[in-house]
């Protein structure tokens, strides 16, 4: 069982609408992101995370998202194992997201 906390999509949408200090990392593939992503999310494909996580601030609050929540849970666990203090998985992933979308 994972020790990574999960956040509901509605809660994340409220935090973003209230301009709370949270950074979304989208770990989906390029073709998935082309269908729309959470506005201002950082796109780091899951396969690229081992090379790119060093560019992230370990003290920032991150919410990690994928299509359904499985890949983002793996990414969240990876970040936690590498010293990130505040990592949350988006429960249900983009399938649960009904908020605004941005397009690359």
Automatic annotation (TrEMBL):
<dbReference type="InterPro" id="IPR050229">
    <property type="entry name" value="GlpE_sulfurtransferase"/>
</dbReference>
<protein>
    <submittedName>
        <fullName>Rhodanese-related sulfurtransferase</fullName>
    </submittedName>
</protein>
<dbReference type="GO" id="GO:0016740">
    <property type="term" value="F:transferase activity"/>
</dbReference>
<dbReference type="Pfam" id="PF00581">
    <property type="entry name" value="Rhodanese"/>
</dbReference>
<keyword id="KW-0808">Transferase</keyword>
<dbReference type="InterPro" id="IPR001763">
    <property type="entry name" value="Rhodanese-like_dom"/>
</dbReference>
<feature type="domain" description="Rhodanese">
    <location>
        <begin position="18"/>
        <end position="102"/>
    </location>
</feature>
<dbReference type="InterPro" id="IPR036873">
    <property type="entry name" value="Rhodanese-like_dom_sf"/>
</dbReference>
